[in-house]
Amino acid sequence: xxxxxxxxxxxxxxxxxxxxxxxxxxxxxxxxxxxxxxxxxxxxxxxxxxxxxxxxxxxxxxxxxxxxxxxxxxxxxxxxxxxxxxxxxxxxxxxxxxxxxxxxxxxxxxxxxxxxxxxxxxxxxxxxxxxxxxxxxxxxxxxxxxxxxxxxxxxxxxxxxxxxxxxxxxxxxxxxxxxxxxxxxxxxxxxxxxxxxxxxxxxxxxxxxxxxxxxxxxxxxxxxxxxxxxxxxxxxxxxxxxxxxxxxxxxxxxxxxxxxxxxxxxxxxxxxxxxxxxxxxxxxxxxxxxxxxxxxxxxxxxxxxxxxxxxxxxxxxxxxxxxxx
Length: 325
Description:
The protein is mostly helical and about 325 residues long. It folds into 2 domains: about 15-175, no CATH class; about 195-325, no CATH class. The chain has 14 helices and no strands. The longest helix is centred in the N-terminal third of the chain and has 23 residues, at about 1-25. It is globular.
């Protein structure tokens, strides 16, 4: 009898937690009208799954509830995806929930205001996602199980995007500690399976370190690895490009707008003069002005569509900055 009451109490607490989360996320903006949104009703999500999940190589879920949470995420209903994911009460559910929150933060929350980065909605949401997923990874390990590579990766990805925003505001010691933590987390992602987005994360991190100058390059030189994990001590330029190329090869005929956008940014960090033309070409791929050879489509999900719109916004800022300079 006591056990039955205890279980009811646990279920009720979990339900109340989910309700609270839904109420907290009610202010999230809806997916933009007129922007591409896939029809993932019925078995469409199963048919399209390899394209939808290509960034992180997630296996098709067997649990209908988990699959439904993914459906909401890929359709751009991020608040509902978070609600459905949390309601499952599993590590996989948390992963989908906070993947949805990360995507909302990156593509739909306002840009952080300079001087108020830490309190901006985007920063708060990213930090929460990274913290919750870090705890989820640890809970799985505490249960003597191996967390999925995708869960470990997304914890790292959310942390990386948080660091990207906050790094300019930190002192040298904090900056060094946070970048070191990020590289350590990335090294904990066990591959295979193939996670093209992991290569892109490494490529972007290496170029950012290189752009930070000699002291940063010396601090993290031992963390530089190629796509197979072999040491490339201090070879930031070559390793960054290799990582992005590995991501593009792994994605085949369905590259990601975000990968090309990040690659363009990294090329400019590595050598703006030498890489200007190549970076411009990749910006065109990211924004849809042109497409890579042997590619017919790069947008399969709401995430892809939002990434393309974000690339257009970034490209416009680059053009305005160049014109002003």
